[in-house]
Amino acid sequence: QVRLVESGGGLVQAGGSLRLSCAASGDIFRIKTMAWYRQAPGKLRDLVASIFRDDTPTYVDSVKGRFTISRDGANNSVFLQMDSVKPEDTAVYYCQMNIMPNGLSPDDYWGQGIQVTVSS
């Protein structure tokens, strides 16, 4: 079945950079949208950035100008370049994709989450 695997998380100092990657595998016919969510301690899971098949990105206001989402449709991958990170960015980041598997209806798929910790 379809699986999403994130990589690239870890510990980084405030002002530094980090690049998250997520790759989907399985019998995939089409990926409609790709997105990154995050859940900080004591907070709900929130949308950080999303990108459509035409490469149009959207961002939550708190990361505009600092984060960049991009996609590689040929490799079923989505990336989040995190620059000028802040301690407030500390969270578990989740990759999400709306995927149409071969022979099945589209549905949302999630990675297991990856920790990003920003130290001050």
Structure description:
By secondary structure, the protein is mainly beta. The protein has no helices and eleven strands. The protein has strands at residues 3-7, 10-13, 18-25, 28-39, 45-52, 57-59, 67-72, 77-82, 91-101, 107-110, 114-119. Strands 2, 4, 5, 6, 9, 10 and 11 form a seven-stranded mixed sheet that branches. The chain has a four-stranded antiparallel sheet with strand order 1-3-8-7, with no helix packed on it. The radius of gyration is 14 Å and the shape is elongated. 30% of the residues are buried.
Distance between the termini: 40 Å
Compute the CA-based radius of gyration.
Answer: 14 Å
Number of strands: 11
- What percentage of the residues does DSSP assign to strands (E)? over 45%
Helix and strand run: EEEEEEEEEEE
Helix count? 0
> Could you give a short account of the major beta sheet?
7 strands, mixed
| pLDDT < 50 runs, ≥5 residues | none
Helix share bin: under 10%
- Spatial shape: elongated
What would the average pLDDT be, to the nearest integer?
96
Given the helix and strand composition, which structural class is it? mainly beta
